[in-house]
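Re-running the complex after MR caught last week's input typo. The corrected sequence lines follow. Everything else is unchanged.
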Amino acid sequence: MKIQNGYVHLVKTALSDFRRNKVRTILTSLGIMIGVYSVVLLIALGLGLKNYIEGQFNSMGANLIMILPGSGFTGEGGAGFGGQGTVGGVSFDERDLNTLERISEIDYIVPIVMKGASIEGDSDKKFGYVMGINDDAFKLMNVEMEYGTEFTKTDIQAATKVSVIGYTLAEKLYGNPSDALGKTVRVNDQRFKIVGVAKKKGDQQADGALYVPFRTTYASINPDKKFWAIYLGIKSDDILPTVKAKAEEALLKRYKADDFAVTEQSELLNSINQIFGIINMVLIAIGSISLLVGGVGIMNIMYATVTERTKEIGIRRAVGATQNDILQQFLTESLMLSIFGGILGLLFASLSVFAIRTFFPASVNLLAVLVSFIVPSAIGVFFGVFPARRAAKLSPIEAIRYE
Amino acid sequence: MISLQNVSKIYSLGEDIVNAVVDINLEIKEKEFIGILGSSGSGKSTLMHIIGLLELPTSGKIILDGKDISKLTDAELSKIRNKTVGFVFQSFNLINRFTVLENVLLPTKYSKERTPQDFTEKAMELLKRFGILERRNFYPNKISGGQQQRVAIARALIMNPKIILADEPTGNLDSKTGDEILDILKNLNKEFGVTVILVTHEHDIAAKTKRQIYIKDGKVVEKYL
Ligand SMILES: Nc1ncnc2c1ncn2[C@@H]1O[C@H](COP(=O)(O)OP(=O)(O)OP(=O)(O)O)[C@@H](O)[C@H]1O
Ligand SMILES: [Mg+2]
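Corrected-run output:
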């Protein structure tokens, strides 16, 4: 009862004091406001970027195992389609496909032939990626048709000269993507009839690709009959470690351990998450500097307030306030100032996030909200404690005589 | 109730040493009405602060209700100031950012008992008794000195203290208003049995008390000059 009564009094007096000194209160909490604003906004942007990338990954289907040359993903460059992220190692071929086919848990095996090439339309030529794949690839990589159809198993077996064109590439070559259907494109000396136009995925490489049956590339595009990578698709997460182990074992009969890597999406995601973790830390550090400056501002104002209220402190001590009561009074005030700044910062940051949402998937998460309350609280206590202690330590009589 | 034994207070201002209170022995019983009389700088206020536990003596003992207060913590001393003692100062010492009623209720914020409602009723009662009830929502700088001193007395009484310590409570008031304040203090002692210790440098004011103590250069003397 006492504590409640006391606290209500403290909070009420602090509030009425803020109301009396509106301008000072707002100016004082400005530092914290800007600090929290930047931290929340930075978290929101980092989170948005992460969401964006994860979205890109998810578009590739969930349970994907990638067999890549070299030691796999090195942390730079695009994952999945790009060849840049890998170093050294071997190229795979149809023998490996046969080896892997013996692992019964695998649902899809997709060889990936990948060549950057100049792709010629009727009148125009553009740079794009020729992707030699099989029919399962469409399911595994979630490539759906906007117009026309996918090529089939028969096309693969017969090495038919057909292709599915990425949406952006079709747009670049023919203006209207639907016009691409039925046209013929040329890569090196090979000609491919376009039977399908893929839906836009928002992934530059996928949208700029020309998908062709992998055996068809064995002519001039890929005379060595080699694959850059092999993707495996499985039905459920549970068997992922088993399948990985089996694939590794099977391939070790032919290659050295350093020459290839069996990785899964989540590993790539982990590396990306790590990178974003670091970026987030840096951004938070920048925001912290504003918070620190804000904290010093609060400390400064609190020292001034203690001096201004010296007589009041003496009076309160005379009517029974303990040193601790006085300490609490000033701590409450600095805490409230600081949290007030935090709430304003969160508010403005949320408005900003709302505004940029239309073109960037930024979002305010629980972490941001917690940060905007916990961090100012810590700052309020830390920077408030020095002036509050000075107030508490004042001699009652000297304080009451102060004019 | 309170006894001071060989109490001294020495202030040192760098090189200078001020013997504000020198070896005072004093016995104050319940329901007394005492005047402490002395010229300016004689140490009256210092003595009063020591009796009210606002300041600790440099040497000597203070026994309150049989307990040596030198062993008490800040919290315990504060509790006694809150519950047992009420101060009335020459310069009123109200908090200007609080209303009259809030000022009267201030000591209750540091009390450990009762609910706030009880206190508000009690505060209204006191303000009514002193004829300033309709000023309860005014700020101290909007009422007269005499009214401010009544608020201060109401504040001193809100916790039902056993002792009221009044340091020249009429010093800032004209004689008529001053007399009204003195009558209030006199009544408190007579009707409610509150011990009142009145500090003053005026003979005729001290004459209204039942017992006088004369102070000179920090010492208790037989006769006031
Ligand atoms: N905090 C202090 N530091 C140093 N000296 C002090 C302090 N407080 C009081 N004194 C000195 O102690 C002496 C007694 O002061 P005190 O205020 O008790 O006198 P007083 O009798 O109340 O005087 P007045 O009637 O003018 O109020 C004075 O000489 C004063 O200068
Ligand atoms: Mg004095």
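None of the earlier attempt is carried over here. Residues B 11, 13, 18, 20, 38, 40-46, 201 surround adenosine-5'-triphosphate (ligand 1) (CB under 6 Å). The radius of gyration of chain A is 32 Å.
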